Amino acid sequence: MLDLIGILFFILFFTFAILLSIIFFNQERKQKIYIKETEIAKTLSDLKVKEIENRYFKEIQYLVHDLKTPLFSIGTLIEILDMQEENEQKKIYYQKIEKSLERCNIMVSEILRDKNKNFISTEKVFNFILSYLSSHECIKYINYQNYCKERKIKVNKITFSRAITNLIINSYEAFLGKSGKIDLIIKDYKKAILIKIEDNGKGMTDEEMEKAFEIGYSTKKSSGVGLNFIKSVMDEHKCELKILNKKNGGLGAYIVMKGENIENEK
Q1: Domains, the chain, ranges and CATH?
Q2: What is the pLDDT of residue 222?
Q3: pTM confidence score
């Protein structure tokens, strides 16, 4: 009787063990299938995003290329009007228009070259930025100090300048309607170059800081692509970007360039 009971218990435990093993292996198989399906879905999603980005970039390229024709036509007409004009004041206006068209042509050419980067002195880059901002109200509040004017950085002048311009305008909008200042300072640390853009505006809350670089997020009535665009440009240039609240109020944006993106001192 005891042997029979022992055999029955053995059969029960053995059957139970087999069932548990089947359940365990089945669950593991399902988990592997789920992980595989998740990876496939992510790959497909990434490919779809990449396809959209490529199509979008090609459309931008076609659009920018088409802009060159009207810009050339406008430039030619301005030259003709300038040659025929006798009024000195109007000739000055025509020259200003020609310079603006020249900047537009440079921007178009840079965009068509996609991510083309060249070594250029920090002074030329920031003079270009300040020239672009010369017609903006924020120019009155900028305190510009460059301690490494001759040092060269490897950048796409147009996209990098646009990113810096966006940061400066963001600083200006932070104290809009109040007395404020924007410190634009470039410092040389031999193996690195630091770009500081600091303001005495309202700063950012912890929630705003956490979501700052998310596309679509904005504390203003805008598309929310500003800081996301800046971050993507800095990533393309292999720069470190930090945005921090200052202790005495306001916000600071700090960009560190180093490695292959700065020219070594001779």
Answers
A1: 2-112 (no CATH), 119-261 (3.30.565.10)
A2: 39
A3: 0.57
